[in-house]
Amino acid sequence: MSHRTRPALPGPHEASHHWLHARVAHYLGRATADLDPGAPLSRYGGESRYAFALCSELRLRLGREVHPSVVWNLDSVDAIARHLDLV
Predict the structure, then answer these.
(1) CATH of region 12-83
(2) Where on the tree of life does the source sit, at the highest rank (predicted)?
């Protein structure tokens, strides 16, 4: 009889980073696979209004305010995740 092991579920930080990556891709109108999480978001264009919408979602998810300047100034999914302690 063989025992199957279940794949490890992503931890809360990994799941949150994936969520953030997917949401940024959504707002930029890109597939997640086409958005390098380490690349500057300015490379992909987008408008400042996505920062406000993303920050609103982050507030609901994290239970704390996230100012849009975090998105504008950090300018990559990885940098935003590190700042918000999602990694």
Answers:
(1) 1.10.1200.10
(2) Bacteria
